[in-house]
Amino acid sequence: MSAPVLFDVPGPKARARIRIGTAIGALVVLAIVGFVLVRLAGNDQLDPQRWAVLFDPGSGVPQALAEALLRTLKVAFVGMVFATLLGLLLAAGRLSDHRWVRIPVTTVIEFFRAIPLLVVIFALFFILPSFGIRLSAYAALTGGLVLYNMAVLAEIFRAGILSIDKGQREAAFGIGLRKSQVMTLVLLPQAVRRMLPVLIAQLVVLLKDSSLGFIIGYFELLRQARSLVEFFIPQFGNQYTFQLYVGAGLIYIIVNVLLSQLAKLVERRSSSTTTASRNAVVPANTPSVTGAAGGPGS
Question: Which residues of the chain have pLDDT under 70?
Fold first, then answer.
């Protein structure tokens, strides 16, 4: 077994220090969690009757959170589809041999990568109406997610395409393929397979960024939780405020964990598929390329 390149293998004393540090860190975390739980219990925030509102259909809370989740997933799905398509086009444009294509595309990518997503959403929702273009909260949020994430995905696609061995590109050109064919038939399929885990991870980021719709009044999970809090305050005060926000947060966590697990599954399957293809045995009755061409010495 070869030694790691980036660091030295810890010795006995270093391993002991690592174990002690890990134990101390775990104790500190447990102490913080215990302190928080004690404070919550002292304020009756752990009362089961308060948490029951999240599961009581008569209160309307589960239905409202479920509808908000669907709206959140809708924004994330539409945003990811259009951001992926536009990101592919921008990546192809940035890799173009023509400067009149490459320079404007690069400017667009760097511009939207540099601007915070919240500023983009604000511009679409509050500034465009001054030019006679009025967008709904859904359209402004989706448009902001698309514009920002298409620039991020363009760089991901470009990096994935450039990671393919140059020999494959040269071989494809050598057999007479055009550049568009090399891109779509040779480079892009391999790049997408390599980038699938990163793309799914970016979907997690996009899904979390959908909570910015709260600022412009789009009823995603966070905004829906706030609306439920405002609905219950006249009758019950702040009795359910903590539970409603925690419920919305847990839904975000569950969905993002599921997407993260999906990314790990895709990464494992991609790795196993690549390994299997490399170790595949060519059947005996399959003619080789060199044999068809007359052998290596032809």
Answer: 1-8, 270-298
